[in-house]
Design a protein that fits this description.
It contains 10 helices and 20 strands. The chain is α+β, with helices and mostly antiparallel strands. The structure holds flavin-adenine dinucleotide.
Length: 404
């Protein structure tokens, strides 16, 4: 029960980190712990499946850097592992003058981030997507789609082939660090267990703050769950668009707006919105958990955030509960869609770190102790970026070892 590296979390970030630690430290004992009975059961298995090109992100940020490297690495990984993907391209559609100006600012950001793109007028947009209407659009040809569960499972197979070990159904309940190692307490079907590791990497998504608290790290953030609700277009609408169709987002928020997403299985989803969740891992609309809700509502940062963004929060709640209002967001750029075209589809839940001063954390956030490294915020596009994030984590672990 003694390991060199233990990784908590069987989402794409944890699995990628485990794989790269095992390949960069051959011969070391590497263990991945996941509390569910399968990998990719939370954010990684409940997302839009988009391989983002990196349009939106602040030039020079980790998000921008990881996304661009990750888009290339994901496509390469899919090619060499026979995982279906499609670089179908993406259109960011402006529907009025105000959006047009924000679109130009995004085009400038594409330029600064070195993202291949072209500006389309309304005629060129209609030629490319006859069912989409707008005053102008940005076309990003390299954006794509994939199933991130398949990518995660393939990375996990490579990790195991390289000598790594995965234990599913192992819920980490305690972490105790001393000078030489970390003791990890676990609840599993086999009973309570204890492992020891030289180094720990935590990639716990919706539980990132709780794992950091188990380690007694002095954190200044909490994870606030934001539900992302989707619909699927009814049969017969599958050919309505060929590209990913996105609105022009509010750049103050780390959410991209309700978009039309061709999925790799041939269906098309609409969504996701972004509404406060009352259960961190509750995918049903009516799910409620007292502890999860108390943790959110007793956190001062949540109320500061709510004060800043109450207008958009109110709008999101209204659109979530009234299907017709939800639809109107999409009708702005795809007017012929009707209420009967929208069928139910499972929601996803974002793990969004919020600081105690109410700031929404847009970039990746890490915390550490002498023998542990915690990924505290891995927002979208962390699925796209998982391969470079895993590599970055290996570099951080190496520099920790060097100073040991
Ligand atoms: C609605 C939605 C749409 C998105 N769309 C996209 C997109 O199109 N493209 C993109 O690139 N990104 C997208 N993202 C973001 C992306 O899905 C996430 O950033 C990424 O999956 C994060 O991966 P992760 O491994 O950090 O977290 P997760 O996938 O959530 O994995 C964390 C894992 O840790 C485990 N865990 C937690 N606590 C414990 C414990 N105590 N013991 C053991 N295990 C534990 C959990 O069970 C879970 O499996 C989207 C996210 C959402 C929610």
């Amino acid at each position: 029960m003694q390991y060199d590296f233990v990784i908590i979390g069987g989402g794409i970030v944890g699995v990628s980190s485990a794989w790269q630690l095992q390949t960069q430290f051959p011969g070391k004992k590497v263990l991945l712990l996941e509390k569910e009975s399968a990998l990719a059961q939370h954010q990684t298995g409940h997302n839009s499946g988009v391989i983002h090109a990196g349009v939106y992100y602040t030039p020079g940020s980790l998000k921008a850097q990881f996304c661009q490297q990750g888009a290339i690495a994901t496509v390469d990984f899919c090619k060499s592992n026979n995982i279906p993907f499609d670089q179908c391209g993406k259109l960011l559609v402006a529907t009025d003058r105000e959006e047009y100006h924000r679109m130009l600012a995004l085009a400038e950001r594409c330029e600064k981030n070195g993202i291949e793109h072209e500006l389309l007028d309304s005629k060129a947009l209609a030629n490319l997507e006859p069912q989409i209407s707008g005053v102008a659009a940005i076309h990003v040809p390299t954006s794509g789609i994939v199933d991130y569960r398949l990518v995660t499972e393939a990375i996990a197979r490579q990790f195991v082939a390289a000598g790594g070990e995965i234990r599913l159904g192992h819920h980490v309940t305690g972490l105790f660090e001393d000078e030489n190692h970390i003791r990890i307490d676990i609840k599993s079907q086999a009973g309570n267990l204890s492992f020891r590791t030289g180094y720990l990497v935590a990639c716990a998504g919706l539980a990132a703050d709780r794992i950091a608290c188990l380690m007694k790290l002095p954190i200044d953030f909490r994870i606030i769950p934001f539900r992302g609700e989707y619909y699927r277009l009814a049969e017969g609408c599958e050919n309505i668009v060929q590209h990913l169709i996105y609105p022009i987002p509010n750049t103050e928020l780390p959410f991209l707006g309700v978009h039309l997403t061709p999925m790799i299985d041939g269906s098309i989803t609409i969504g996701p919105n972004a509404v406060l969740g009352f259960k961190r891992e509750g995918y049903d609309r009516y799910n409620f958990d007292l502890l999860d809700s108390w943790e959110t509502l007793s956190f001062p940062g949540f109320w500061k955030l709510a004060r800043q963004h109450w207008r958009s929060a109110k709008e999101e709640f209204k659109n979530a509960w009234k299907k017709v209002d939800y639809l109107q967001q999409v009708q702005k750029y795809c007017p012929q869609l009707e209420i009967t075209d929208l069928e139910p589809y499972p929601a996803g839940i974002r793990a969004q770190a919020v600081m105690s001063d109410g700031t929404l954390v847009h970039d990746f956030l890490f915390a550490e102790s002498p023998r542990s490294l915690h990924v505290c915020n891995a927002p979208s596009p962390a699925a796209t970026s998982a391969i470079p994030i895993g590599n970055h984590i290996c570099d951080l672990v190496k520099s920790k070892q060097a100073s040991d």
